[in-house]
Amino acid sequence: VQEMSRLVTQLPLFKSVTRFIYNQNIGDLNFLICPDNHRDDRHFIERYLERATESIPLGLGFQFLKAVYDGNGFKRMDGSALNYTHHFSFFPKDIPLFHFWGAEDCLAPLENIRYSQFYPHDVKRVYHLETVEDLKKVKIESEPSQLIDFVIHGANHLDLLYGKKAEELVQPILEQIIETVWADWSYETHARLNPDAAECVSGLAGT
């Protein structure tokens, strides 16, 4: 992945073409960002590809591609072909889950939101967010057994982490989640309420 990113971000001709495509989204070839979220930073993609791809294994890319084109969830690439989405019902229901979806994301397509129905959580909600005003309708409780899907309209894959949508919509929600759900959480409490997990977290308690 890193070698491929160097090809499109450092060679003069490829660099110019890459910058033009990603800043204009020519032919919907931009599978990382929505340009409108990065109008003040025309070189974002170049810097991201240069610095971040060294930690992205090629196998992960193939996993994403297989999930996108197969349409049957995220699977292991070894001989087991284990499909993670077939085991969501075994996820501990007392661990709250918060999924963020980019409505324009083709690497992690919004269609996969359908798998949320298989989790065992008691409280499930879906919020569609496009503007700051939409944050007013978001309700996050201290209830552990909750799963919330946040659909960020106008956001591509990296827009959930960087740029306008991340700053205006994602970050405020994350802050609310931390304050409401995780404020009183500790390894000691988790071990006390879940004896089977005591041995696993004993080395982390007090850190």
The unreliable regions are none
Helical content class: 25-40%
| Rounded Rg | 20 Å
What is the number of strand segments?
A: 3
Structural class by SSE content: alpha/beta
SS summary, helix count: 7
What profile does the largest beta sheet have? 3 strands, parallel
Q: Beta-sheet strand percentage?
A: 5-15%
| Mean pLDDT figure | 81
N-to-C SSE series? HHHHEEEHHH
**Alpha-carbon distance between the termini?**
35 Å
Major sheet: order of its strands?
Answer: 1-3-2
- The dominant shape is globular
Describe what you observe in this structure.
The chain has 207 residues and is α/β, with parallel strands linked by helices. Helix content is 35%, strand content 10%. It is built from seven helices and three strands. A three-stranded parallel beta sheet has the order 1-3-2, covered by helices on one side. Helix 1 (2-10) packs across helix 2 (12-24). The longest helix has 17 residues, at 164-180. The mean pLDDT is 81.
Short structural description:
The protein is an alpha/beta fold. The protein has helices spanning 2-10, 12-24, 44-52, 58-70, 164-180, 187-193, 198-201, and strands at residues 97-102, 123-129, 146-152.
What labels would you give this structure?
single chain; 207 residues; alpha/beta; three-stranded parallel beta sheet; 3 strands; globular
Q: Topology of this protein?
A:
Elements: H1 2-10, H2 12-24, H3 44-52, H4 58-70, E1 97-102, E2 123-129, E3 146-152, H5 164-180, H6 187-193, H7 198-201
Parallel strand pairs: 1-3, 2-3
Helix pairs in contact: 1-2, 1-3
